[in-house]
Design goal:
It is built from two helices and 33 strands. It is mainly beta and 534 residues long.
């Protein structure tokens, strides 16, 4: 059927035929939709709008934290707030050297390992682990094993600025002066064969008596310290018998008065000895008496005394000022050999340790996290750390414990933590945020709220729906030690210590209850507002 449109229509002029209406837009005729029920006014939380024309457009625009998108005939409204809630966050993170400030609400802070430090986030967890990596001794600031490559048997020696590899005094790692290592004695140090540059020690077997020398003066005993030989020089008696007349009876020929006074040296004999009776046979035997001297003890020397204190192995003769004699002494420990040795041990920031004697002992003591052990056979001191790299339990964080923090308080980020208290057995209090007894608590969906139960011991707390039925999803309890029970009625039974968390789903609204399962009067309302309708 033909349509008879007006010949010269005006803009917005309409034409109706068989129930269909067209409208002229100035160029062409357009079919107008049939009349139907539509909303002519749109109301929002603040303000309203009414279309001005039949073809007016309502624009849905995203506001703060909200974005919109249109795909086909589908309008999508999306919240851009991470986690669906606003929470306390650290905007700036400071370190020992520098700080970082977040540039956006979703900025990422990266925790990276530095020198000898590794970082790791365990898969499907929120756990960041910081571990110490293995490192060589050259990592120590005062040790340099790069400038001089160590060789087998080297030890670390102080070169004036660093500990660096150096040649050991012996292959066993010991010093040549055992006295400077007292306290670390082992079989190596006690073996005289391992001592280098040993002094020669004279023993009695090294001494001998040589042939008698020609008589001279008052006689003497001489010692050759190169050969170890003692030789006897008999006294010259020729001047004592100048008036001697040989007879068979010498009793009248030799008298004491004929001996010159200058030759009388024995203090125990007076100058006027009555008579000297010497027989011819006695004179002939005099040579026998003198030549019979063979091995002689060092104690025969007038300024040596080895009888008062008998010598023992390894001792030397030392001058005794009190007795004015040479006497056995252990002070020298076999005759030290001079060598380079440290008498002072210096530690930066601490007092110096100075040796008080050649036998003083330097003690090494275990400190916190340090275990010392010795291996005498290899002359080795081992310094080991027994500290586990990184805490594996919350209780190991001593700074957290000293601040009064327990693991239940930080088990999950909550929008609010309510400090639970009690008025006897009649009502709850939440003085951290509310006043009065059993007050109504307000919460927002899509967030987590926490109930700190440590202030209300003996009052097991439960989250219930409006009918008094315990919630079995989204509710979990954390003990101060970190034990977690969740999502079942049995697991939540009697949680009267630690922290109770409720993860409120975003699509939740209405009234819920907090209830003491041991005391019926202790009950109150939790009103949840849905985030999307705020």
């Amino acid at each position: 059927m033909a349509l008879n449109f007006p010949a010269s229509p005006e803009a917005n002029e309409t034409y109706t035929s068989n129930g269909t209406t067209w409208e002229f837009d100035g160029v062409v005729w357009n079919v107008q939709p049939s009349e139907r029920n539509i909303f002519t006014t749109f109301n929002a939380d603040t303000g309203s709008v009414t279309p001005d024309t039949a073809n007016d457009t309502l624009i849905v625009a995203g506001g703060t934290g909200v974005s919109t998108s249109l795909t086909g005939k589908t309008l999508t409204i999306t919240s851009t707030v991470e986690g669906g809630t606003t929470q306390n966050l650290f905007e700036t993170v400071a370190s020992d050297d520098g700080s970082s400030t977040a540039s956006t609400a979703t900025a990422t802070l990266s925790v990276l390992g530095g020198t000898n430090i590794d970082t790791e986030i365990t898969t499907d967890t929120n756990n960041l682990t910081i571990n110490m990596a293995a490192f060589s001794i050259d990592f120590l600031s005062d040790v340099d094993t790069n400038s001089v490559t160590p060789a087998t048997g080297n030890v670390l020696k102080w070169n004036g600025s660093n500990w660096a590899p150096g040649t050991d005094a012996t292959t066993g790692g010991a010093g040549t002066d055992a006295d400077t290592l007292d306290g670390f004695d082992g079989s190596y140090y006690l073996d005289w064969a391992n001592v280098a540059n040993k002094p020669s020690v004279v023993t009695l077997t090294d001494l001998s008596v040589g042939n008698e020398l020609t008589a001279s003066g008052d006689g003497a005993i001489s010692y050759d310290n190169t050969t170890g030989v003692f030789r006897y020089t008999p006294p010259d008696l020729s001047g004592y018998l100048t008036s001697f007349t040989e007879t068979n009876d010498l009793s009248t020929a030799v008298t004491w008065a004929n001996v010159p006074n200058a030759n009388i040296t024995e203090s125990s004999v007076t100058q006027h000895q009555a008579a000297l009776s010497v027989t011819e046979s006695q004179i002939s035997d005099l040579g026998t008496y003198l030549t019979s001297i063979n091995a002689i003890s060092i104690d025969a020397l007038s300024d040596v005394d080895t009888t008062t204190s008998a010598p023992s192995d390894g001792q030397i003769l030392a001058w005794d000022n009190d007795a004015s004699k040479w006497a056995p002494s252990a002070a020298g420990s076999g005759g030290d050999v001079n060598q380079n040795a440290f008498t002072t041990i210096s530690v930066l920031g601490s007092s110096d340790i100075v040796a008080d004697s050649t036998t003083d002992t330097l003690n090494f003591v275990n400190g916190n996290g340090i275990v010392l052990s010795t291996t005498p056979g290899t002359d080795t001191i081992t310094i080991a750390s027994n500290v586990v790299a990184g805490a594996t339990q919350f209780s190991q964080l001593t700074d957290a414990q000293s601040a009064g923090i327990t693991i239940d308080e930080v088990a999950e980020n909550a929008m609010v933590t309510l400090r639970v208290g009690a008025n006897g057995f009649t009502s709850y209090t939440f003085n951290s945020h509310y006043t009065g007894s059993n007050p109504t608590i307000y919460a927002i969906s899509g967030t987590t709220i926490a109930f700190d139960l440590n202030g209300a011991p003996g009052h097991p707390t439960e989250i219930q729906d409006a009918t008094g039925t315990a919630l079995t999803s989204g509710v979990f309890h954390v003990t101060p030690q970190g034990a977690i029970t969740q999502q079942t009625v049995d697991a939540l039974h009697d949680p009267d210590r630690g922290t109770l968390y409720w993860r409120i789903p975003e699509n939740t609204s209405g009234n819920f209850r907090y209830q003491c399962t041991a005391h019926a009067p202790m009950v109150g309302v939790i009103t949840v507002k849905r985030l999307s309708t705020l």
